[in-house]
Write a structure and sequence with these properties.
The protein has a single domain, classed as 2-Layer Sandwich (Transcription Regulator spoIIAA). By secondary structure, it is an alpha/beta fold. The model has no long low-confidence stretch (mean pLDDT 80). The strands form two sheets. It has a five-stranded mixed sheet. A two-stranded parallel sheet has the order 3-5. 44% of the residues lie in helices and 23% in strands.
Length: 126
């Protein structure tokens, strides 16, 4: 993603895609950065594999309402495509505090553990 610090990690064993955001600030004043991230995130459902999309915020020190709106919109788009959004490393705790309908875990490892537990439960039920 040009001009925006992010790293994509695909984890086929979990059917997951992890997007590690490296920008320390994603607030309303960083309009260009938010818009660029929005364009990038909305393109994810069409070209990257993974039933589960995990956005890792552990390197993000600040985000604002524009970023939260972006996450809610992304979740709707992913759900329409049959995919699930999870957020990890939310040091600010605003996602959980605001009661947004987004699944949040403390770490990416915890999110992947939940995915593997869910998958093993579903496999046992078949």
């Amino acid at each position: 993603m040009t001009g925006h610090a992010a790293r994509i990690e695909t984890l086929p064993e979990f059917r997951a895609l992890v997007l590690h955001l490296n920008d320390s600030q994603l607030g309303s004043l960083q309009t260009a950065s938010i818009k660029q991230l929005e364009n990038f995130l909305h393109s994810l459902p069409s070209y990257l594999p993974g039933e589960h999309v995990i956005v890792d915020l552990s390197s993000v020190r600040y985000y604002g309402a524009a970023f939260l709106t972006l996450l809610v919109d992304l979740q709707k788009n992913l759900r329409t495509a049959g995919r699930h959004l999870m957020v990890t490393g939310d040091r600010l705790g605003l996602i959980r505090f605001s009661r947004l309908p987004i699944t949040s875990f403390e770490t990416t490892g915890a999110a992947l553990h939940a995915v593997s537990e869910r998958d093993s439960i579903l496999a046992a039920a078949v």
